[in-house]
Design brief:
Length: 442
């Protein structure tokens, strides 16, 4: 069963969604309309499976372009398994907007359950009286802030589920590729994802900060299962104006280590500025496969000169990305976007091959002989042994003397040398140094 939370803004849909999921996956903020996109998750209870969808607050009377797009998107994504969870604010009288939303969802001839939220005391049944006139037989009175009535609601959701196969909605995780789109606000992340998907999954516009959540969408693309994330723009701390923006940036940053492919989208107009360098550093630290896309190339007059200057910056100043791929696109053009995604997916190996330990140690011997580490207090640094401890991202553990005093420039030298020696493309490489005893020596 697919349960779709629907209602006007600020009635508590996101709070209900999070209570059902038992995790704060969505952003909750007192500001109206803080949920701006379609959020969904799968919830399991033994062999029972349901899907929960949180939607933006809607207003059928609104002439705002985003409100209109939300109604259109909800309508397009309904199916016979959909069950509406119509949420109203129990502390307020019914409004014309509530009435209009109910009339709108009744047209689809799907099941509707009424949820009266914000009933903040133990007299839950008393408050449902004013809502009898809506004609909805099944009603739940709850308080998310006090966790009242939630267990009863969740019990109903699973008991009402007619489709209890555990794998009803679940993709094969072994074949799934997760892609995160990161960058500054207004770089075109939502437009890029929408163009790739072929429809307006996420809201877009000229104003920055429209996306405030880290939002996934699952698709099957050329026999590959892909979970693609549109993320909130990552702002400098000095330019964050609210707790919502702060939380959104933190969610985007934390998502980097969870996605298999990290794509940094850069607005060609602003180029590689200080904030983009900061995001590059974050991705180089947390990411697995890393790609850079320069968007809005159609707005650059001298494209050849621009590309030449960008390549010089990446090769000389952005040391973390000497062996990473970068592309130039206009995210409004379908052929640009699909071509880039095809190239990226063809270069990614889901099951990374483990590098033989003897080859790693052959590399270490050659690299340290070609360029020795500076003496530390008059003593030579002995590099004894190395082995691979992780595949994605590739992590190499190097046993050596004075491991805590290895200088940064030498670490960078070894990393770049390793990448070149094994011809590593687009993958992040991490080197760990240890003075502990080599486990392969008796």
């Amino acid at each position: 069963m697919i349960y779709l939370l629907i209602g006007q803004k600020n009635v508590g849909k996101s709070s209900i969604y999070n209570r059902i999921n038992l995790k704060n996956k969505n952003i909750i903020n007192v500001k109206e309309g803080s949920t701006r996109d379609w959020i969904e998750s799968i919830v399991y209870q033994k062999s029972n499976t349901i899907k929960i969808i949180d939607t933006p607050g809607i207003n059928p009377f609104s002439k705002n372009i985003y409100d209109k797009k939300t109604l259109i998107y909800i309508k397009k994504n309904l199916n016979p398994l959909t069950h509406f969870l119509f949420v109203v604010d129990g502390q307020q009288n019914l409004t014309r907007i509530d009435d209009e939303i109910l009339e709108w969802i009744k047209k689809f001839n799907l099941n509707i359950t009424l949820i009266i939220n914000k009933i903040d005391n133990n007299k839950l049944d008393y408050y449902s009286y004013n809502y009898f006139k809506l004609g909805i037989k099944r009603t739940f009175n709850i308080s998310c802030s006090h966790n009242l009535g939630i267990n009863k609601l969740v019990k109903f959701l699973f008991q009402n589920n007619k489709y209890n196969q555990k794998n009803l909605f679940k993709n094969n995780e072994k074949e799934e590729i997760s892609i995160g789109i990161y960058g500054k606000p207004n770089a075109g992340k939502s437009t890029l994802v929408n163009t790739f998907l072929g429809f307006n999954r996420f809201q877009t516009g000229n104003l920055s900060g429209i996306t405030t959540d880290t939002i996934p969408h699952n698709i099957k693309y050329k026999n590959k299962l892909i979970k693609i994330f549109d993320t909130a723009g990552i702002k400098p701390n000095t330019k964050i104006n609210s707790s919502l923006e702060s939380t959104a940036s933190l969610l985007s940053i934390s998502n980097i280590s969870k996605t298999f492919i990290s794509i940094l989208l850069i607005d060609s107009i602003t180029g590689i500025d200080r904030q983009n360098k900061r995001i590059l550093n974050l991705i180089s630290t947390k990411g697995k496969y890393i790609f850079i896309i320069f968007n809005k190339i159609d707005l650059i007059k001298d494209k050849a000169l621009f590309k030449k200057n960008i390549m010089m910056q990446l090769n000389s100043k952005i040391y973390q990305f000497k062996n990473n791929s970068y592309f130039f696109i206009s995210s409004h053009k379908k052929n640009h976007v699909t071509k880039v995604f095809d190239l990226i997916l063809n270069r990614v190996v889901i099951k990374d091959k483990k590098i033989p330990t003897n080859k790693i140690n052959s590399w270490l011997k050659n690299a340290t002989n070609d360029l020795e580490h500076p003496l530390i207090r008059g003593k030579k640094v002995n590099f004894k042994y190395a082995l691979q401890i992780s595949n994605s991202p590739i992590k190499i553990k190097i046993f050596c003397s004075h491991s805590y005093k290895i200088i940064r420039s030498y670490k960078l030298y070894l990393k770049n040398n390793f990448i070149k020696y094994f011809n590593i493309r687009d993958q992040n490489i991490k080197l760990n140094f240890s003075t502990s005893k080599n486990p392969y020596n008796n």
